[in-house]
Amino acid sequence: MAFKKLFASVGIGGASVETVLSDPNVLPGGVVHGEVRIEGGSVDQEVQGLSVGLQGKVEVESQDQEMLRDIEFHTQQLGGAFDLRAGASHVVPFALEIPWETPITTFLGHQLTGMHIGVSTELAIARAVDSSDLDPVHVHPLPAQQAILDSFGELGFRFKSADLEQGAIRGTRQRLPFYQEIEFYAPPQYRGLSEVELSFVADGRGMDVVLEMDKKGGILTGGSDSYRCFQVDLERFGETDWTAHLNQWLAEVGSKRNWF
User: Fold this and answer.
1) Nearest to 250 by CA among 130, 156, 161
2) Which of 29, 48, 53, 205 is the most exposed place for a label (fewest CB within 10 A)?
3) Would you give the end-to-end CA distance of the chain in angstroms?
C-alpha cells in the first residue's frame, strides 16, 4: 500500500478526471453546460477542491521576446474537500458562464487560425500531482460582431490571422488581462493601408470596436499606425449600415498613400 501511495503522489495510479461538454458552441455572455467525471485510482485520496475555468493561449512579452502562455481568465469552484475512495466514481454537473470579452474562436463555421480557448478542469489532490483536463470550446461572434465582420468581407478585406495579446487597450471597457486582435489584409482600393487589426471589447450593455490601421510608408517615410475606436449598442446595431460606416473611416486613412 505504501508503494501505491507513493506512485499516486506522482500521478501513477492516482485519480483521473474527464470533462464532458453538453455543447462546445457558445456566444460571449452565454453559458457552457457539462459535467466532470472523477474516477478514483488504486488508493484512497483526499481531494482538496474541484474547479472549472476558461483558458487561452496568450502572447506575452518577456525579456524582449514574445512567447505563448496558457492563461486562465475565469474560474468557478464546484465543490470543497472530500475523500475519494479507491475505484469510486463521481459525476459533478456544472454551468460555466462565458465572459462577454471572451475572444471569438469560430467564424462562419471555421476555426480562426491562432485561437485556442478551452474549458480547463482542475482536481486538487492533497500530497499529489493535480489532475487536470482541457476541452476546446467554439466561441461564435455576437450578432453585432458578426455584422462588423461581414462588412469587412464585403469591403474586400481578407483574413490573415488572430491572436491574444497580454495588456490593455486604453479607453475601452476591458477587464480581462489580454485582448484579441483579428488581422486582415487590406484590399487594393485602400492604397495607403497594408493591414487592419480589429478588436472587440464587449460587456452586457455594449461593445467597443477598435481598429488599428497599418499605413504604408513612402519614399522618405516609414509606415505608421492609425487608431479608431467607436461604440456599438448590442441591441440596436442593426440600425447602422456598417459597411458604409467602416468604409468611410477606412477611406479617410487609407485612400491615399503618404509618399513624402
Assistant:
1) 156
2) 205
3) 79
